[in-house]
Amino acid sequence: MTNLTKVSLVKCTNYSKEDIRNAINKTFSYFGGIETVVKKGSKVLLKPNFLKESETEDCVITHPVVVETVAEMVIEAGATPVIGDSPGFGSVRKIARRVGLDKVAEKLGIDLIELDKPRKASINCGGKEFSLTVSGKALDVDAIINLPKLKAHVQVLFTAGVKNLYGCVSGKQKAWRHFKAKNDLEWYADMLIANYQLVKPSFTIVDSVMAMEKTGPSGGLPKNVSLVVGGIDVIAVDRVVAELLSVRPEEVPILRAAKRLGIGEQNLSEIEIVGEDLPFVKVHDFILPNLSPIGFDFIRVIKSLIRHFWLKTVGKAEPQI
């Protein structure tokens, strides 16, 4: 058994700096420490979920204490972190400012960046050829630490490791891919797997201390899950998350795509789960959404584009319901 198929489950009941530090340190320890993930002198992209401006208690974005803690540990390992995303709505800096992460970045001397500068790249994934456009800034770093927020998602059931990497697609090209999908969920899920393979994070830490249920990726209900989930193989991570939420893998579009393309490990007997015993931390009452069509029509793409630029420049995100 190699570390590649290992997934860690670490108990963490709150976002105090001490408890998050202990949980993330324990997560990395199961894989030989953060030094096995990042090398001295390297540039490391921390990729949180920064969907849009929101309060931490809304559970829309990766909690800032999680991002801050990983940034500090990367610095301690002798590497240079940058915090970056391509938000669905608004700007990285405005989202960071809303939750105080801009001051943390200033204190630590690290950059907050937009994952712009789109670059075309081709990849063969499971025997299929994909031509994708992703941020050149995501491709040019030495390592990516993927920091998703566990949330229900009305188009792919839940969002965790794989879906968070869609934020490496610059700006409204994400909406354009929804338009291109034409409600073909299989094509869209295959594309998400290829996108994951293209940017290929070195490590994933899922912020599931407080998750979001019922709907998503915004507007849902906070759900206490009290775990930090970690691993190298993002498919294995998402498979364990599905099990954690008591969801069969065949119900998850992203996991179906990974199996179809032969990417990653989903056989639980081949995944070494360390830390908490999975049967004892499973969530049996997590409210999952009814799936909505994946496609955007042209009018929705235009409306999304207008809203994004308004929030990025002068607007402020509406409060969550």
Label this structure with key terms:
321 residues, alpha/beta, Rossmann fold, ten-stranded mixed beta sheet, two-stranded antiparallel sheet, globular
Compact summary:
Helix content is 35%, strand content 24%.
Level-2 CATH architecture: 3-Layer(aba) Sandwich
Number of helices: 12
CATH superfamily: LarA, N-terminal domain
Shape: globular
Number of domains: 1
| Share of β-strand residues | 15-25%
Q: Using only CA atoms, what is the Rg?
A: 18 Å
Low-confidence stretches: none
The third-level CATH topology is Rossmann fold
Structural description of this entry:
- The structure is a single chain.
- With about 325 residues, this protein is of the alpha/beta class.
- The protein has a single domain (about 5-305), classed as 3-Layer(aba) Sandwich (Rossmann fold).
- It is about 35% helix and about 25% strand.
- It contains twelve helices and twelve strands.
- It has helices at about 15-30, 65-75, 90-100, 100-110, 135-140, 160-165, 175-180, 185-200, 235-245, 255-260, 280, 300-315; strands at about 5-10, 45-50, 80-85, 110-115, 120-125, 130-135, 145, 150-155, 155-160, 205-215, 220-230, 270-275.
- Strands 1, 2, 3, 4, 7, 8, 9, 10, 11 and 12 form a ten-stranded mixed β-sheet that branches. A two-stranded antiparallel ribbon has the order 5-6.
- β8 (about 150-155) and β9 (about 155-160) form a beta hairpin.
- The longest helix has 16 residues, at about 300-315.
- The termini are far apart.
